[in-house]
Amino acid sequence: MGGRVLSVASEAVPFIKTGGLADVVGALPAALAGAGWQMRVLLPAYRSLRPLLDSMTPVWTEGALFGGAAQVFHGQVQGIDLLLLDAPHLYDREGGPYTGPSGDWWDNAQRFAALSWVAARMAREGVGGWKPDILHAHDWQAGFAPAYLRYHGAGGVKSVLTIHNIAFQGWADARLMSDLRLPLDQFHPGGLEYYGNLSSLKAGLVTADKITTVSPTYAEELMRPEFGMGLQGVMAARKADVLGILNGVDTTIWDPAAEPTPYSGRALAGKATARAALCARFGVDVPGPLAIVVSRLTDQKGIDLLPATIPDFVAAGGGLVILGSGDPALEHAMRDLAQAHPGRVALHVGYDETLSHQLFAGGDAVLVPSRFEPCGLTQMYGLRYGTLPVVSATGGLADTVIGASPATLASGAATGIVFHPTDALALGQALRKLVALYADRKLWGQMQKTAMTHPVGWDASAAAYAALYQGLSQ
Questions:
Q1: Which of 76, 241, 356, 413 is deepest in the core (most CB within 10 A)?
Q2: Do 334 and 199 lie in a common domain?
Q3: Does 66 share its domain with 37?
Q4: Residues 232 and 99 in one domain
Q5: CATH number at residue 351
């Protein structure tokens, strides 16, 4: 059992990361190896990655790739079987994977169509004696890859498209159809046309053999207009081929027993020490529950709900430490919140991996009031660290957190607080529940221990992907 998979994406840990997509793409190869699946990961050779090429071997040449010549390099890098698409005219630029100093790169459609084109060709023809059974494309950046397989020949290779966040759809002008090497006869509502233009994500959705999302609830939500972002009809039409597979986290990296002040579910004393260190670092003194937020500061994440709810939480004895960046207006609102509650609310704008670990180790609860959340990793880190999640009932949050209720508390099953709908009233009620639960130290300790035993690793998810691949290969 098992086989070969070519995974194509725009980012992967430990090479390039802007969000959770990178964590998943980087974790899958090791997670699937135990099930007999060999996975190679194809990424663009962004400027920051070009130094890696010196220790890699050229294995593929593309003479005319959307404006210039390109090569693919292969090598084992930091434990990953890596392929880098070196196309300097597309990727050798200052800035991030998708944006430059003035915003989105003007040619993103071509940049990621190129990635998809090369992935489909290598899958179809094989490279250096290695030919995959499955092409696994991730999000809009690789959405054209299944389409190129479908329209230019699959060579016996099956395709899977994973939606990590349907809000990002890879829009492109319809006039680019020929330039992007797409068949003009497929420009219709049942094919590639999308509100008069193109969407690389839709292209993948209508051509991939199977579609996965990063949680079972998100798979169901995407067939509804409030979550489908215009693609709900496509998702509903493909419902027989859609599967929700929950993400996992790397439990060797996210491990409370490996933190500077180690602790475990059986010996929680170290968490109190970590909490004291966190309070000292941020200059806060919190008699009640110390909540944390580790997030992009956006409306999607529900950050705009905090100014209306945190003052009452602080008045009840709670405190908050925020780590993140994003919408300038929300960054400003978080600064105002911290200034209004000195010693109780603190803010660090930006992201720091080490500091993130300190927040999860020292916090009592992690707030994730997202309006939609395909999977979410933050709440899983919270479970792993006994930092109880307070989450909205959506997507992967609903799939991973068992909300405190009389029944779940009586049975010892509760691992956090789940609220609905996602508004200030419901979040305020959840924070009042948090204060009350924290005051019952015996009950709180039991919830922490239960949360820390909840499986958040990749074992079950890897088995589900392996079963999906196996089914497609037969």
A1: 356
A2: no
A3: yes
A4: yes
A5: 3.40.50.2000
Judgement on whether residues 412 and 465 belong to the same structural domain of the protein: no
Pairing state between β 158-163 and 210-213 = parallel
pTM of model > 0.70 = yes
| Mean pLDDT over the full length of the chain | 96
Angle, CA of 449, 441 and 396, to the nearest 5°? 45
Residue 332: DSSP 8-state: H
Number of domains the chain contains: 2
Burial classification of residue 333, based on how many CB atoms lie within 10 Å of its CB (0-12 exposed, 13-18 middle, 19 or more buried): middle
Assess whether pLDDT exceeds 90 at residue 393. Answer: yes
Query: What is the reported pLDDT for 419?
Result: 98
Q: 276 pLDDT exceeds 90?
A: yes
Helix residue ranges per DSSP H, 258-365: 269-282, 306-315, 328-340, 353-362
Range of the domain at 381: 256-453
- Structure confidence at residue 261 (pLDDT): 93
Instruction: For residues 114-121, give the mean pLDDT.
Output: 98
Together in a domain, 343 and 369: yes
Q: Which two tokens stand for residue 431?
A: 């924070």
Residue 252 zone, left/alpha/beta (φ > 0; ψ -120 to 50; rest): alpha
Contact 96, 102 (CB under 8 A): no
Cα–Cα distance measured from residue 324 to residue 293, given in angstroms and rounded to the nearest whole number: 8
